[in-house]
């Protein structure tokens, strides 16, 4: 499918600073999943087929995974547990994809709506302006059982947003679904300049249990018989989403969708692939997309091609079947932004104070809440730091991850304790057009001897948690002081 122009293109076009040594445009692969999991957990099921890992084309792995779930278990005990550890679905995705070189770089949850974003580890250093947003539409906007969560970011010079939505249910509530859409569009605002709204982005992917049904008065049995005869095209002529998008243009009309060629994905008897005729079958689970082809570079048009759109009937834990969409998009791998360069660090001395040195351009905007995290070399989530230090603050929080001091949890963490540091723990030296910074990490960081680690520099704007990855160090080994060679005393 070819791309479609979003209405009202972003007039604040950013002209990219491209490195002439890199190709101007390259193709990247995006894999989108939507699934209403009906409050079920991912115990005893494999996600490999859903993630495309059992395909014969598995060697051409996606660069980005976007997994949007609806009706995730939100029992009180599960919500409390979620404050301190990953939800079971994100943990399962991380386990399945982590060994293949993927990193969970952001999640956003609003009650039963969950969006998890993963990216190949080789791309992490190019993630900029990561931000999550949510909009409640349930009970007039006061309850989050319906609505949308989204994650936006910049990668290789292009800004994109992924929106996971769950709209009003039932055949007769078409107007409520339209109003849900409009409420999301009005209330969903980001805090990145030039990209305040959903449609301001270069690429938009909008998916979820959109709950659009079939118009008409035929019975569930009659719809089931039409499905059995393969009359998908005739049924799609009565699809509410196609109607409001193409005919009345009341919702989603600037987005595009490939026509589903798979059977309706709702409603099934749990544990089976048999329709539950208490409800008329319908294509409730959908994936739409759109682009701003001229938004980045006036000399090069962006492009999106959808090459797969299918359901996965083998999954039967809920009354919905999951749906996946696969896309090729164009990005600018030569896009340059000011970046942090770490000096090589070969060994980290466990139990001792260690100094990290890095160089930054004078044009780099350092923010009050910038921080450097220590990660295991083959990290699988940006939340899985071992320890961290703030770059601009004179006193540092405890080195162990803690909810109240998590730099991802709030833009201005409240510290449970203060460690008194040497006033010279942060030292700066300016030369020509750059600054050399030396930052001391405390001696009480818990690391494992003979394992490899890396450093990641995060720029945190302090505004609604907008975060950028601005530099990654080389791999270094941690060693206890007793295992390090000692120089002989010289009199």
From TrEMBL:
An annotated GO BP: phosphatidylinositol dephosphorylation
GO cellular component, one term: plasma membrane
GO molecular function: phosphatidylinositol-4,5-bisphosphate 5-phosphatase activity
Family annotation (Pfam families): Exo_endo_phos2 (PF22669), SKICH (PF17751)
Domain Inositol polyphosphate-related phosphatase per the UniProt entry, residue ranges: 26-335
Family indicated by similarity: Belongs to the inositol 1,4,5-trisphosphate 5-phosphatase type II family.
Protein name: Inositol polyphosphate-related phosphatase domain-containing protein
Species this chain originates from: Glossina pallidipes
């Amino acid at each position: 499918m070819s791309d479609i122009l979003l209405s009202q293109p972003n007039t604040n076009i950013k002209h990219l600073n491209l490195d002439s040594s890199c190709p101007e445009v390259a193709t990247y692969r995006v894999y989108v999943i939507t699934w209403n999991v009906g409050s079920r957990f991912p115990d005893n099921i494999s996600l490999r087929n859903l993630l495309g890992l059992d395909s014969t084309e598995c060697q051409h792995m996606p660069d980005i995974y976007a997994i949007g779930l609806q009706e995730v278990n939100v029992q009180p005990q599960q919500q409390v547990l979620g404050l301190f550890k990953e939800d079971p679905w994100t943990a399962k995705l991380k386990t399945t994809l982590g060994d293949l070189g993927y990193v969970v770089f952001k999640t956003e949850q609003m009650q039963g709506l969950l969006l998890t974003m993963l990216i190949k580890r080789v791309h992490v250093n190019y993630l900029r302006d990561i931000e999550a947003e949510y909009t409640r539409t349930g009970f007039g906007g006061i309850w989050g059982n319906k609505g949308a969560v989204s994650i936006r970011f910049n990668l290789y010079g292009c800004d994109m947003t992924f929106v996971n939505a769950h709209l009003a249910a039932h055949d007769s509530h078409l107007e409520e679904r339209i109003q849900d859409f409009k409420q999301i569009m009005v209330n969903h605002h980001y805090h990145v300049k030039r990209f305040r709204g959903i449609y301001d982005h270069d690429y938009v992917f909008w998916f979820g249990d959109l709950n659009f049904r079939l118009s008409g008065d035929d019975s569930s049995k009659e719809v089931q018989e039409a499905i059995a005869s393969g009359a998908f095209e005739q049924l799609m002529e009565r699809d509410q989403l196609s109607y409001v998008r193409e005919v009345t243009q009341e919702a989603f009309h600037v987005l595009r969708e490939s026509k589903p060629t798979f059977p309706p994905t709702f409603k099934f008897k749990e544990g089976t692939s048999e329709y539950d005729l208490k409800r008329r079958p319908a294509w409730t689970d959908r994936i739409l997309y759109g682009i701003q082809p001229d938004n980045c570079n006036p000399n090069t048009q962006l492009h999106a091609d959808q090459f797969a759109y299918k359901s996965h009937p083998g999954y039967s834990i809920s009354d919905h079947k999951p749906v996946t969409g696969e896309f090729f998009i164009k990005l600018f791998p030569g896009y340059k932004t000011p970046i942090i360069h770490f000096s090589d660090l070969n060994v980290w001395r466990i139990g001792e104070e260690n100094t990290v040195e890095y160089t930054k351009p004078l044009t780099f905007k350092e923010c009050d809440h910038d921080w450097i995290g220590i990660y295991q070399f083959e990290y699988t989530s940006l939340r899985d730091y071992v320890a961290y230090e703030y770059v601009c603050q004179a006193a540092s929080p405890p080195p162990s991850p803690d909810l109240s001091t998590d730099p991802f949890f709030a833009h201005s963490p409240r510290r449970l304790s203060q460690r008194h540091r040497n006033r010279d723990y942060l030292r700066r030296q300016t030369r020509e057009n750059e600054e050399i910074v030396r930052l001391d990490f405390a001696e009480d960081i818990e690391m494992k001897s003979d394992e490899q680690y890396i450093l990641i520099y995060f720029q945190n704007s302090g505004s609604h948690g907008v975060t950028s990855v601005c530099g990654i160090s080389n791999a270094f080994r941690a060693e206890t002081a007793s295992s390090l060679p000692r120089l002989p005393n010289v009199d």
